[in-house]
Amino acid sequence: MTPVLRARGLGRRYGRRWALRDCTLDIPGGHVVGLVGPNGAGKTTLLKLAGGQLAPTEGSITVLGGHPAGGAAQQARIGFVAQDTPVYAGLSVADHLRLGAGLNPGWDAALARERVERLGLDPAHRAGRLSGGQRAQLALTLGLAKRPELLILDEPVAALDPLARREFLQGLMEAVAEHEFSVVLSSHLVSDLERTCDYLIVLVDSRVRLAGQVDDLLATHHRLTGPRRDPDRLPAGQHVVSASHTDRQSTFVVRTEDPIHDPAWTVSRLTLEDLVLAYMEGPAPAQGRPVLEVRR
Ligand SMILES: Nc1ncnc2c1ncn2[C@@H]1O[C@H](COP(=O)(O)OP(=O)(O)OP(=O)(O)O)[C@@H](O)[C@H]1O
Question: Quick check: CB of 11 below 6 Å from ligand 1?
Answer without folding.
Answer: no
